[in-house]
Give the backbone structure.
Amino acid sequence: MTTEQGIRTSTVAWRVAGSLAALAASLASAPAFAQATPVTPPADAGVPASTRTADPAAPDQSIAPRTTPAEGPQDAGSIVVTGTRITSSGFAAPTPTTVIGEDAILKNAQPNIFNTIAQLPSLQGSTGASTGTFSTSSGTQGLSSFSLRGLGAIRTLTLLDGQRVVGANVTGVPDISMFPQLLIKRVDVVTGGASASYGSDAVGGVVNFITDTRFKGFKANVQGGVTRYGDDKQALVQAAYGASLLDDRLHVIVSGEYDDEDGVGPGDYGTDLAKGRNWYRASTLLNTGQTNNGLPQFNYRDFAQPYQYAKYGLINNGPLQGIAFDQNGAPYQFNYGSNGRPTGTGAVTNCFPGNSFCVGGDLSGAPGSGASLKSSLERLIGFGRIGYDFAESSEAYVTVNVAQVKTSNQPSPGYNRPNLTVQCANPYLPQLVRDRCATAGITQFNFGSSNANFPNPLVQTDRRQYRFVAGLKGKFDVGGTDWTYDGYYEHGVTKAAIDVERTVLQNRYVAATNAITLNGAIVCADAAARAAGCQPINIFGGATPSAAALAYVTPANGPLQRTTLKQDVASLNFSGEPVELWAGPLSVAFGAEYRREYYRVRGDPYGAGVTDVSPNSEAYPADPLLNSTLGSNWAAGNYKNGTGKYDVYEGFLELNLPLFDSEAIGKANVNGAARVTRYSTSGTIWAWKIGGTWETPLDGIRLRAVTSRDVRAPNLSELFAAPTVTTLPSFTNPFGGPAVQIFQNTVGNTDLKPEIARNTEAGIVLSRPSWLPGLSLSFDYYNIKLNGVVSTLSADQIVRFCFEGNQAFCGGFELNSPTQGGNFVNVQPFNLASWKTSGFDIEASYAWKQPLGLPGSFTIRALGTHVREFKVAAGIAGVATVDQAGANNGATPNWKWLATQSYDNDLFSINVQQRWFSDGNFGNQYVVCTTGCPASTANNPTIDYNKMKGAFYVDVGGSVNLTKQVSAFVRVENVFDHDPAAAPQTNTGLDVNPALYDTLGRFYRAGVRARF
């Protein structure tokens, strides 16, 4: 949406929020028809999720039991654990599972539950509204998706009530923003491989959202929020109603929610971030271009200045190099940093030719700070469920989920153009410079500009999802043995639209800047361009182009992408205890599943090329300046056409065998599962797991271990990717010469095979010992080896490997094309790489009832993850393995902790939360040195500084029960307004890592909740 639309929407949202807040207050004195959930935690609230045993009578309120009561009409003694398909009383699965209960979700007071779950230490590299804002073509702006163990969102299976959800992007990952969040009563996070139980994608683990399918009454939540800078204003309105009819056999639930988040940014050119944030310093890894002179190749510096362009134009080559233009179009001598002096050859002395930067000087035209820090996000969610108990222990149900999520962000300001050829005869050029051309004996020169007089681009996404599920679940008796069953059919459709506004058609821009005087009027020099409507543009200074010129260069019908994703799933599962053995019953689960995934994506003709399937072709008239066959005419947002589908047939069997059960040696079991899967694209593959638990005779001590073979099939975008084109405006050319603008062309590969992982975990648990029943501790070691990883080398790697002599990489790029837009690098995914990561998780908690004689309870919890290693091997001869553990430029810091302390009683609640991750570096591949450096290579480049501070955040919140049904709450996040550490790039990007660091600053939230 436009800025004006965002303001109007936000105003309406705040008015609605205020009205519902007043409504909630007025209802406070109304008679209750359902008892409010008590604020006092259950007896085992302080026990870590991976260690607790379910109490079927206790409400799930905090970081809660890893085994919880079954849903629906099943027996209260049965338990459902996401890490397994076994449904059995007293069963302890060997796979660690963290459970976030309703109380923890409420205390975080987030407008999107995604933000609460993503704080868990085991979740590393998740994406949300604060990530990907610098990108135009990715299509993932505002997409909320989880990544476990740093393995990526595509290797984390996200479920809703144990069922798959249609993807919100061609990668197949769902958008958590589309879930019915008010009805979620807990979230299970399985931190281990679960492919044998749930199928493809569960390599890193499973995140399962469990809704309250038997909710009765009415509840509502109204809250708002704003940063200390006065931006990212948020308004959330949620309501849900549930009722039981026909003697408690018919259960009806409906919910709706509206969330409006304004987002943050963008800033201005230079180092001015949005709303006065002052932490941006244009930090960059400057490439000296030297690899064997005893000095480091890369130097870390703040306030890096690109010397190929300026805010309103800079002559960057030839005898006039160094002449810039101010806002009024007057020429002046550009102020290079580093005491630089132009050489007339494109280089600048004392600066860094490897990526065309100086340090300091005139930073006014650098575009890095001009990207949004957070996308605006607007959610509208509707959910309904009807269930009917057609027998004493069986239910038929239908659910409908309809959702719309809209986002908007600015990827960068203006139009960064470092390599334009300008004629000295251009009538817009000041006479002084034309005279200098004549004196120097030249007729043209190279020119670069940020084009700050152009409107700033805007990327807008609109994702709409329609999901329908019909199912049967319950229990039946066979020969005196109870069996549970769960069968469902799901059909999901996502319609995703991406529209990019105010983006430049590059060849039209070039034609519009090449002006001449004809019959006393300034016109475009190219006669064919004039005939097609070309309007000249003055690029020397800050004069705003005419409306006709802007309409020609940045037409209203900009880049667009229209995507349709469809998912159909049919699943039937059974679980029972057919045989009573020496130490307990043999538990069995088995089932089958069919799944079909389909996608179709269409781009506009100017981006995709003219085809008979391009949408709105009539809105993009033919133009002799544009490439009608290949497309890729936009400066960014060149979306392509593509389609693909695959079918999956699966069957699984899981067994739990009790080994012994006695007071002398304790209680132990072995749990195993196998799943066979046939993919229409890549054939048949097996997944399996085997593990066990041992409740030792030592007070409160349990051991557990599991090893598994897990798989991830290539997704639709990897198999059938519509070729995408990304513009890299300042690409380093190691063969010599200045940095150039290139197109990175990405295509799919239908020959891809499934990735195969080996996941091993082992742990020890101390759970509520008799000598200190409020204490629980757990320690779990994990080791994951992933082979055949679908990966793509970066454009920089491909070119550099060729430069270093590996001829296999020399046929897929062009860096010296004389044709406008002719420079490119082709990239494609292959099953090349292998990953290995290992580390351990720690959980601890202590619950203290009536501390110091006070009513209520005090609870301390801490969860930590240590990433010991995260080794990435590219699978290419000559390419070294890189350990990404501790590289805070990525997603896997060495340590990550989450700790909470809370005091709760019947009147109020106070909670404090700490989030911390350890110091790290830019990358473990670097060799740090200042003098006497070894030769710098692509595998081990030399650098003068390689440290990156971690972060420590404190959040404080509390609530007050105004009545038994209504409570008010407040929360302050990042209390000390901790700034993010610089994450230097080798280009002009926003030098921060929002996947780890808080980039918004202190945040205030407040609201009112009601439940009747």
Notes: The radius of gyration is 30 Å.
